Amino acid sequence: MGERKEKPQYLTLKRFILELLRKGKLSPHEKLPSERDLTKQFALNRNTVRHALGILEREGKIYRSGRKGWFASGQRLVFDPSKEHVNFDKLARKQGFTPAWQVLESGTMQATGELQELFNVEEGTELFHVFETGSLDGHQVYYSEYFFLAEICPGFLPKIVSRPMTDVLREDYSIHLYQKDLLIRPINMEEETASHIGLPTHSPGIFFRRIKNSQQGRIVQVDYEYWRADSIELRSTFSS
Questions:
Q1: Boundaries of each HTH gntR-type domain copy (predicted)?
Q2: How far apart are CA 87 and CA 82, in angstroms?
Q3: I need a labelling partner for 46 at 20 to 30 A (CA). Which of 74, 118, 156, 210 fits?
Q4: pLDDT tens digits, residue range 17-30?
């Protein structure tokens, strides 16, 4: 018989934390013991501890918050990418969350490069841009860059300070949005993007690019969304 292989050291720590999560001894967004404390408690070196924590982070069980340390992940927002259109506010409330968003910057710009191609307009066409962050139960979960064809919604920007953008388009401009194209890609967060939602650079994330038509078939909105990997779950249900 061959010799029994020793269990990798990092697995002991990983399984310990998973058991705490399973038994509810770590509440959502509760801070884990520091890396130094875990090093002492399990007689492991710092690299082994970080390896175990990094695996749990990639699995969405825990997350880092800058220099504050490691925290247990919270409940995920379930998103069905097969749906025609999703309203963040309504979807989150339906799943028991308290959603909120904050506009960081808004204004006008000219369509060039990729945006010109995606909107299929002439270079220099006026666009509205809105950069915002969104949160669930007080915890920031995404950073978004939204772009709108300005000519179809004059006076749009002041109206979105306290109302969901999709509601403003539908109620004030009679524009109903239909998803034309959806791109989903796993990413490592760039520094600027990560900083908006309190994550270290290169943290795992999920990137969404949405292209939306009006009921007349014209492209009127393009979205770039950057979500924390531990805050969203993609799930579709299909009828047999």
A1: 7-75
A2: 14
A3: 74
A4: 999 998 889 888 89
Convert the chain into a string of H (helix), E (strand) and C (coil).
CCCCCCCCHHHHHHHHHHHHHHCCCCCCCCECCCHHHHHHHHCCCHHHHHHHHHHHHHCCCEEECCCCCEEECCCCEEECCCCCCCCHHHHHHHCCCCEEEEEEEEEEEECCHHHHHHHCCCCCCEEEEEEEEEEECCEEEEEEEEEEEHHHCCCCHHHHCCCCHHHHHHHHHCCCCEEEEEEEEEEECCHHHHHHCCCCCCCEEEEEEEEEECCCCCEEEEEEEEEECCCEEECCCCCC
User: What is the per-residue pLDDT for 103?
Assistant: 92
pLDDT for 161 beyond 60: yes
- How high does pLDDT run on average in the chain? 90
Distance CA 62, CA 32 (A): 9
Tens-place pLDDT, residues 182-213: 999 999 999 999 999 988 888 889 999 999 99
CATH code for position 175: 3.40.1410.10
In a domain, 228, yes or no: yes
Residues 126 and 84 in one domain: yes
Q: Which residues pair with 148 in a beta bridge?
A: 128, 221
Q: What is the CATH number of the domain that holds 35?
A: 1.10.10.10
Does residue 70 contact residue 32 with C-beta atoms inside 8 Å?
Answer: yes
In a domain, 4, yes or no: no
Domain count, the chain: 2
